[in-house]
Amino acid sequence: MKILFIEDDPMNRRVVKDMLDVAGAEMVEAADAPAGLAAIEQQDFDVVLVDLRMPGMDGMEALRRIRARDDAKAQLPLIVVTADTAVDLRQRCLEAGADEVMFKPVAMDSLFDTIGRVLATRGGDIIL
C-alpha cells in the first residue's frame, strides 16, 4: 500500500511514517499542499492523508483541488488528519471532499482502522 501524507510538521510526518512502516506500507511525504498535489500528479497512491493547517495553501483547498481533477485521481481516498477541533470541522471537510477526518495525536490503531474503513467503504482491498 502506498500512502501520501501532506503535512508541514516533520515530527508528525515521522510519527505516522513509523506507524505505517510497522504495517509494511510505503509512505511518501509532502511538506506542503503544492508538493502533495505535485506528488499526486507524478505517482499513484492508495490513500492520501491531508493536514488542514499549512502555510500557503491549506488542506481544505488541497482537498477541493484533488476532487476537481478530471481523471481517476479525483476519486482518491482522502483522510484529513488535524488538530483542529472546531464543532463543524468534520462536516466542512466532508463537503470539501474528505472521506474521513482523524484528530491528532494519531494513534496507530485509529490510523489503521480509519484507513481500513475508508477503503472498505470504497470497495478497495484492505492491506493494513
Structure, briefly:
This protein is of the alpha/beta class and 128 residues long. The chain has helices at 10-22, 33-42, 59-67, 89-96, 108-121; strands spanning 2-6, 26-30, 47-50, 78-82, 100-103. It contains five helices and five strands; from the N terminus they run βαβαβαβαβα.
Structure description:
It is a single chain. The chain is α/β, with parallel strands linked by helices and 128 residues long. The protein has one domain (2-121): 3-Layer(aba) Sandwich (Rossmann fold), CATH 3.40.50.2300. 42% of the residues lie in helices and 18% in strands. It is built from five helices and five strands; from the N terminus they run E-H-E-H-E-H-E-H-E-H. It has helices spanning 10-22, 33-42, 59-67, 89-96, 108-121; strands at residues 2-6, 26-30, 47-50, 78-82, 100-103. Strands 2-1-3-4-5 form a five-stranded parallel beta sheet, with helices on both faces. The protein is globular and about 35 Å long.
